[in-house]
Design brief:
Blueprint lengths: L2 H9 L4 E11 L5 E7 L6 E2 L2 E3 L6 H13 L1 E5 L5 E9 L2 E17 L11 E4 L1 H7 L14
Parallel strand pairs: 1-7
Antiparallel strand pairs: 1-2, 1-4, 2-3, 2-8, 5-7, 6-7
Length: 146
């Protein structure tokens, strides 16, 4: 879904849905780290997310968002790790959006990706992600990784 379609749906009072990934890796010491990225506008920490893409399953779309926004390639789990809601301004409309998040084990980290100049990224422990991510309920998803 693009921004124009989302805005039209929001004006009609229809629900809007997005998908996201919680990218993670296991270190040589067996510890889990998650990748957080900054938002483009306010530079807040979050996990990659975006509109579900036509022709892709929700986990596939989440993996695509992780590639575009964080520059990581991996395999998303088939089932969601959790959900959260937020409000997004779409022109003159403020729309509630429900985001379904999928854990994604990272296989490869790219040195160059499409949004590299727009975002920062960092590997952190799940407990640190909880503190960095301001949105209620989003940071805590890092605790529930496999």
């Amino acid at each position: 879904m693009n921004k124009r379609k989302a805005k039209a749906r929001a004006k009609k009072g229809k629900s809007l849905r997005q998908v996201g990934a919680v990218p993670y890796r296991v270190t040589g010491k067996g510890e889990i780290e998650v990748m957080v990225i900054t938002s483009r506008g306010k530079r807040r920490f979050l996990f990659p997310k975006g509109w579900k893409m036509k022709g892709k399953s929700a986990p596939e779309a989440a993996a695509r968002e992780a590639l575009e926004e964080a520059g990581v390639v991996g395999t998303p789990a088939g089932s969601a790790i959790g959900r959260y809601e937020y409000c997004k301004r779409l022109g003159s409309v403020v729309a509630p959006i429900r985001v379904t998040m999928f854990p994604m084990r990272v296989r490869r980290e790219l040195s160059d990706w499409s949004e590299k100049r727009q975002r920062k990224r960092a590997w952190v422990k799940p407990s640190v992600a909880e503190k960095l991510i301001e949105h209620p309920g989003l940071g805590s998803l890092a605790r529930d990784l496999p």
